Amino acid sequence: MALTDEQTAELRAALKRCSPETLEAALRFRDTGDAQQVPTVVYGIIERHLSAEDVPRLAAATEETRLVEDLGIDSLTLLEIVLSIEETLGISINNDELRDVRTFGGVKSFISAKVSGIGAVAEADAGPQKRRFDRDAVATVLPQQYPFLFVDEAELEGDTVRASYTVRGDEYFLEGHFKGNPVFPASIVFEALGQAACLWILQSDHDALAGQQGAAATAGNGSGHGEVLFASMETAHFHRRAQPGDRLDMEARLHRIHPPLAIFNGTVKVGGARLAEIERLVLAFGPGVAEHLSTRAQEEPAAEEGKEKAADATSGQTSG
């Protein structure tokens, strides 16, 4: 079935950091169902998630190349790859199916087998119930507390959380941001939207979170069952200023979830006018996520150095 213009635009946005060949193969697969396009798509998505120093290893990969030992793919990165593949190819993969996938060839074979079994996915018919939280209820759930709690009230409905926060003017950081002209920082606006998304993870009855609620409880609330942490953010845009007296109306919509990762898109408005928007805000949740992110952070400096060297080599310039 041919993709609609909206579906094509979504696919282009999801693969905008992948190679043109990856996008072309994905579009052809979604249009025609041609399974021969799958290896190109899988290769391109894996490549997009590798550090610059690991990309040459992928180019030289054989069917026996190991994901962890040879390509340096950790468990969280693998899940991000899986989420991208699910979204691109329109398939669903559960964690149990991945346990025996250890090699590059194994990934391609597994995805090709999944593609061959694609069928219609039934949508749940029951209408989602709304759940409302006042500030006291929000504070009971979230680990963020005054003076760093930026959700006054919230409402959960299906895959969406809507929340609000009124800029009071007495927030401790406004005195220096800016002197004589208080402006609510863009970073705190994004933080507020992220807190709303955290609330969704901790309180939603989504099927993917079954059995995860206790494990997803964030540090600082006395549960000791794990954390919800910001993992990454694809793009963020800020359109205007927020100042004392403004009410921030936030909406975070679940884009995809595959425990322990959840991806949200969100908007923030003031008086109906768009203030900010975030695409692909990734939250990691559950036991052990802090250790995973810490390991990734330690690897980033080397990866960034590799990217700089690759950029210099491509442009023919040398850093001085």
Question: Can you put this structure into words, describing what you see?
Answer:
The protein folds into 2 domains: 5-116, Orthogonal Bundle (Non-ribosomal Peptide Synthetase Peptidyl Carrier Protein, Chain A); 130-295, Roll (Thiol Ester Dehydrase, Chain A). The protein is 39% helix and 20% strand. The protein is elongated. Mean pLDDT is 84; it is low at 118-126, 213-225 and 313-320. The relative contact order is 0.11. Helix 2 runs antiparallel to helix 3 and helix 3 (38-49) crosses helix 7. The protein has 320 residues and is of the alpha+beta class.
Describe how the helices and strands are arranged.
Layout: H1 5-14, H2 20-32, H3 38-49, H4 55-59, H5 75-89, H6 95-98, H7 104-116, E1 130-133, H8 135-141, E2 153-157, E3 160-166, H9 186-203, E4 227-238, E5 247-258, E6 261-270, E7 273-286, H10 289-315
Antiparallel strand pairs: 1-2, 2-3, 3-5, 4-7, 5-6, 6-7
Helix pairs in contact: 2-3, 3-5, 3-7
